[in-house]
Amino acid sequence: MKRIVVLFALMSLLAPVLAACSSPATPTPPRLGKLAYEAYRGVDPQIYIMDADGKNRRSLTPLGAIDFAPAFSPDGKKVAFSSNRSGAADSDIWVMNTDGSGRVDVTNQAGEDSLAAWSPDGKKMVFISTRDGGPDVFVMNADGTEQTNLSQSYGFGENYSPNWSPDGKQIVYSSNLEGPSQLIIMNADGSEPHVVGQPPAPAPTATPAPGSTPAPTPTPIPTPTATPSPTETPTPAPGATPTPGPPPSPPEDTNPSFSPDGTRILFISTRDTGNSDVWIMNIDGSKAVNLTNDSPFDASPRFSSDGKKIVFERSDQGKDNIWSMNADG
Description:
By secondary structure, the protein is mainly beta. 3% of the residues lie in helices and 37% in strands. The protein has one helix at residues 2-11; strands spanning 34-41, 44-51, 58-59, 67-72, 78-83, 92-97, 104-105, 113-118, 124-129, 136-141, 148-149, 159-164, 170-175, 182-187, 194-196, 253-258, 264-269, 277-282, 289-290, 297-303, 309-316, 319-326. Strands 4-5-6-7 form a four-stranded antiparallel beta sheet. The chain has a four-stranded antiparallel beta sheet with strand order 8-9-10-11, with no helix packed on it. A four-stranded antiparallel beta sheet has the order 12-13-14-15, with no helix packed on it. A hairpin with a 6-residue loop joins strand 10 (136-141) and strand 11. The model is unreliable at 1-31, 204-208 and 214-233 (pLDDT under 50).
């Protein structure tokens, strides 16, 4: 389970193909043609960088710590990442140059700090911290000052994967504060949070036809019964009603990010099939479309800066790889 969570964390902040995150509201950064990502060497994950075509792969962090969730700064000169290399049990947000030099711990607080994302102007970062009891969305200046809890769930819910709108005025993240994970958009100061694109409820179970008599529910008998061997399948007694299976799991939406023009949200959802697929919808939740719709486990999609490509993680047959596709799937 921990590995799955870590993978969600690291891929939720993959640098986009072709450039670091840019927006129409800020100067366009140089087109880097780079990807930053996490990969395992031995037992510990490390931060790597490579060209968008998969060539020139190299490590930015040395062994000896757990490093994950890299994110390019908008000007392409820095990489924020999560690490426990300060020696504490919990991770902090660190910043380094794109050649791996100049590593600095910018949060240095109790609790688990992870999943940093730069604001479009590079002056702030949002991130997740457990210092107030549970995973909450925090914001701070890029140098680590003025760290503020924006979501304020204080352990009553879990919040993950915060990301900025291109104009820097809003933040989108996922939260299970009110049940299954939903996508939340709030203002950059934490005000006016609201659910967007709430997943549809699972299909209701079948009900008896009008006039029919439902089969009675057997009353358990409080006496020991024989336990079948692992190779045996219990056979219901004649006329008995089979025990219904578990209800379908409610659909969940996670890993959100804005499109470069700010009109759509890219995210992961278990709608339709229950499988984790890449979806896209308008920022008001309308016109939700499944872009992958297949059996592998997909996570943490991100647009390229020109909006023409999508990068995402795919786990298939025990292997985790970085994939790209056209923006229409």
